[in-house]
Specification:
mainly alpha, 2 strands, globular
């Protein structure tokens, strides 16, 4: 239908854009990962694997990477637990209010990331909204008493103590909470789209054949919505793994993630080669995850 010149005119600009602003920077990043930094803080172009060996040897980077993956997995699980029921309700039960509720899901995306991050920092702070409500209802004393008793039990068994309630803000819990709030809409939208594409006659046929609502959900709705679930989980995990603002705002020293290490290496530490090695290693993890989920989605669609 279209001439070769038209196809070239349509395809060449995005190809040039992706090559110039994605592939070339990734290639430069890959080259930096094999270089080193001299004692006078200059980058030396001697090709070696020392940065990748440092990443494998240094337990700090491994611990922070595993912590980042645990936080990303926790955010993904909580976002799915919150997002799937809401998407299910929007698709099957919210008839007249569907458009309104759908807009309410999207509206948080209009607000700035930093505004939402600082809002949670205000809520979770020692003198913030949450602690103010707990003090007003005298729930803080009860929670601290329970926590102190648990702390004494853990100390007696030579285990670590729990984080005190006044320091709820700077903890991995705060990072998980903030990132779950930020990335749950990215989980809801693909699940909702997947549920909307389920033929309603299949659900009606399941009911007509005598299946209970739970059996219909388990055998019909859930399997057909799995591609959306996988897409939403991939969004949440990948975006969380690469996030560095939320740990910076609400994480503190115990909630630091691997992206904060990369930012520090490219910034104050001026160790661009090591930062490039860590960034490229994270890129490989993300690409492997995307490839795996894509294959899984295709297999589910075929089946």
């Amino acid at each position: 239908m279209y001439s070769r010149a038209y196809k070239a005119a349509v395809a060449i600009p995005p190809i040039v854009w992706v090559t110039a602003f994605l592939l070339v920077p990734c290639a430069i990043l890959f080259c930096y990962s094999f270089w080193s930094v001299s004692s006078i803080q200059t980058i030396v172009h001697n090709w070696n694997l020392q940065n990748y060996l440092e990443l494998a040897r240094n337990s700090l980077y491994r611990d922070v990477l595993f912590r980042s993956m645990r936080i990303a997995a926790a955010v993904t699980c909580f976002a799915l637990l919150l997002g799937y029921p809401l998407a299910y309700y929007l698709s099957f039960y919210a008839t007249k209010r569907k458009e309104l509720l759908y807009q309410l899901v999207i509206i948080p995306l209009w607000a700035s990331y930093l505004v939402r991050g600082y809002a949670w920092k205000t809520i979770l702070g020692t003198d913030g909204v949450l602690n103010g409500v707990l003090r007003f209802t005298h729930a803080t004393d009860l929670l601290l008493a329970i926590q102190n008793s648990v702390n004494q039990h853990l100390a007696a068994s030579h285990q670590i103590t729990l984080v005190p309630l006044p320091f709820l803000l700077y903890s991995p819990f705060a990072v998980v909470l903030v990132l779950t709030h930020i990335y749950t809409p990215f989980v809801i939208l693909p699940i909702y789209a997947s549920l909307e594409h389920i033929p309603r006659n299949l659900v009606e046929a399941s009911h007509d054949l005598g299946s209970s609502p739970w059996s219909t959900f388990r055998r019909v709705i859930l399997p057909l919505s799995l591609p959306g679930v996988i897409a939403g989980a991939t969004f949440a995990f990948v975006l969380t793994l690469g996030d560095f603002l939320a740990p910076l705002l609400v994480g503190g020293s115990s909630g630091i993630m691997i992206s904060n290490i990369v930012v520090g290496l490219f910034g104050a530490a001026y160790n661009w080669p090591l930062g490039a090695a860590i960034a490229f290693f994270m890129m490989v993890i993300v690409m492997a995850l995307l490839f795996t989920t894509e294959r899984l989605e295709k297999r589910l669609k075929v089946s």
